[in-house]
Predict the structure.
Amino acid sequence: MKEYISKYKDTRKKILSYEYFLWLYEWDYATEAPKESNQYSENQFEILYEEAYKLESDEKYIEAIEKLYENIDQLEDEDFKVEIKRVHKGLRMIKKVPKDEYLAYGLLLQQAMPVWVEAKTKNDFSIYAPTLKKIIDANRKLVKYLETDDLKGYDVLLDMYEDGFGIKEYDEFFSVIKEELVPFVLEVTKRKKQKFSRKLTKGKFPVAQQEAFSKYLMEVFEYDQNRAVLKESEHPFTSGVSSFDTRITTHYYEDNLQSSIFSTIHEMGHAIYELQNDLKYEDTFLHGGTSLGIHESQSRMFENMIGRSFAFWERHYPKLVELFPKQLKDTSYVDFYHYINQSKKSLIRIEADELTYSLHVLVRYELEKLMINGKIKVEDLPKKWNSLMTKYVGKRPTNDAEGILQDVHWAHGSIGYFPTYALGSAYAAQIYESMNQDFNVEVAVKNNDIARINAWLKEHVHKYGMSKTPKEILLIATNKPFDPTYYINYLKKKFNQ
Amino acid sequence: MKEYISKYKDTRKKILSYEYFLWLYEWDYATEAPKESNQYSENQFEILYEEAYKLESDEKYIEAIEKLYENIDQLEDEDFKVEIKRVHKGLRMIKKVPKDEYLAYGLLLQQAMPVWVEAKTKNDFSIYAPTLKKIIDANRKLVKYLETDDLKGYDVLLDMYEDGFGIKEYDEFFSVIKEELVPFVLEVTKRKKQKFSRKLTKGKFPVAQQEAFSKYLMEVFEYDQNRAVLKESEHPFTSGVSSFDTRITTHYYEDNLQSSIFSTIHEMGHAIYELQNDLKYEDTFLHGGTSLGIHESQSRMFENMIGRSFAFWERHYPKLVELFPKQLKDTSYVDFYHYINQSKKSLIRIEADELTYSLHVLVRYELEKLMINGKIKVEDLPKKWNSLMTKYVGKRPTNDAEGILQDVHWAHGSIGYFPTYALGSAYAAQIYESMNQDFNVEVAVKNNDIARINAWLKEHVHKYGMSKTPKEILLIATNKPFDPTYYINYLKKKFNQ
């Protein structure tokens, strides 16, 4: 065993180093590299990527993992056992999928991006359809290679993104959404809309002041500046590699004050999760968030449950007025609270409000099920998309750019990813409620005591890194299995006020 | 030969990739990485660094280089011959220096930095002396390993930084400096000083406007935005990896308008040199500047001969006034020109003006000669420094922080580097004069036609990358061997006006 452990750890060290540099490349590429630099850097990236793949597919390394897995009971350290289980599961791709198919799939995805961009720009699904068909077919083949006794079909993909969540679990979850949320949304969106000052809705908000407010938010959320970077990019994202190095981006629009604010808060939720991982996971494969759903629960809790709360703006609105005295002159924090919590039927997921967001996800979930089960032809997808949107969100797209062409995910090969977005919001509500049993969260927010919230989340979620499954985390943090009722109740309470 | 060529090129490809990532790390580290991130990233760096070293010291790779070098006449491509010669020369370190001594030296340098910082901060040379002694001793040993029939002693080190320049060449150069420049400086610095508006000398210049002017300068110098990054760092520097990716930094001081301006222009001189390399050198070891001296000639020409010229400010001063209308209200471009071209005796090299700069370098050159020849004890260095400063610059340091402790170079192990700074200015004057024979450079500057200057430099200097030696570049660009008279004449003309 000793030699397997040392082979494993030696290779892990190198893989982590290569992953660090590939991560740095992606960060630089997305935030800073000059436009034409890819003409040189892509080559360099490819070479290191290949070296990393060689390490990961090294026979001796794979043998070590398999031996450790077979003799997992002999391992003393509990964390190490979990790590070996995770890594062993990850081996499937390398072992079960023929190398040429694996590489061909990678190539296909590389080519898919510009095709999707063109189709979206030209608002023409027929440009994208042949590529999307190839991606769906490749995923169906992938599924076949990876199926086990327990996991079949779409479940194989769902499980990749959220351990323990398959069609059965998601169907249950979304049935609650359909029964409870769909009619509620219909009711809310029918209500008469509040009118807001034109200064707020049509005002100009200089970027320099928005930047200053983002910096202020980093202080408010006690996001440790010595382990953080805040930058701007086209689409906001979080990119961390270590608890000592977490980086986020936001995007500033001069004519939209709230966009950068809630992006910054959202990404801080992701970043603080990884920042607060136990340091013992630093040089292992257990550093990070345990799943996309749990990750999203942290960002959504920060963004919506804290960042869009009444208590938050009662406390921090004066700072915003200080930075934008003219624009916010006639607007009180109560107005502002209502302004940032409006709900309306919309067509674009990333612009959807908190209340309607999961309905957009539901549309994608039902489509993906049909796609992977071979129950729908690619050419029929736009029509189906539009009818599901009408059914669940109550609004029909007038073209494919605002319909099926809006998301990049499938062009990335990410099928089974979307459902975690909705799940994250539901997790967030359940975790928030549990925290609220220990102390009054609203009072903490009002007192600007985010430290207390961070400490609670560290203790009950963050510190575990990837050493617990999403289901385990939920049990640790809430003492209960997943229950979407918290989410429904939270939304009903907030949007009935 | 074929197999050696392919072994060489295969390994080169990987080394270039690793170098790219190590470069990206350094850039990120100096400009963006969070303060504590090194607690994770240093490990990752070390691992990739070791992998790169393994590649460079791979026996088969070294064998390929040696075989190609032995049979260099059989190689058809002239550039490839030059590359093999350069790489073969670079092998000396790996072949002649015992590995443990080489690694121990690396470790010594790693430890030296914080020691130097502490000594400088505490203004106490005795803290630094034992470390400096070790560095000097290690360099003297290094010299012994690397000596050849043609290169002995200090020449071994000088040659590393400037091919073809040893004690003989530098002694000749500096004797002209001593004879012509030292008395001239004495004369100039005795003259009555012009008084400038307090708004200019004591004014506040907000960073945002300085940033705007730096961006304006990038346009003026036609520094291609699609291949450039401009950022801020503690000490300005240029860091390029490809003609498609050149990056510079500057530093903004609210109470000093000229610092960021001339840093930006200086670094653009370096960056445009590499940006204008022939693209055929991209994936070879011939991309970059051929030597430190030639590199510095480009940055100094931009900074001093163009950036501090009368014509330049006649043209661009209105833009500066537009950004700083209050601060520059009473100051004309003529005043400003004189303000940025003042000359005075100073103690700190990096704050020295154009006229006195090379005298600071002379002090270091004479000290290094003594150090490497074993003609001076470490404890006597501060005294010698001070007496040389008095002799050449005409001003005596009152403590070691403003004396021998001011520069980081020796703590980096860079002995033999300083002289290239002075050489660069002298090269610049000679190259400028040659360009001026082809077209009136001042008129081009006044007409804001920097494109013409860049095109000339590309054709006569930049495009060659590292495929020519400094001496060859000078012959190509000026049709003459190196002649410091151009430099002296340029300075006399400018500072006699």
In short: Chain B touches chain A at residues 13-14, 16-18, 20-21, 24-25, 28, 32-41, 43-44, 47-48, 51, 208, 225-229, 231, 241-247, 282-283 (CB under 8 Å). The longest strand of chain B covers residues 245-250. Chain B has two domains: 1-96, 157-497. The domain at 157-497 of chain B is CATH 1.10.1370.30 (Neurolysin; domain 3).
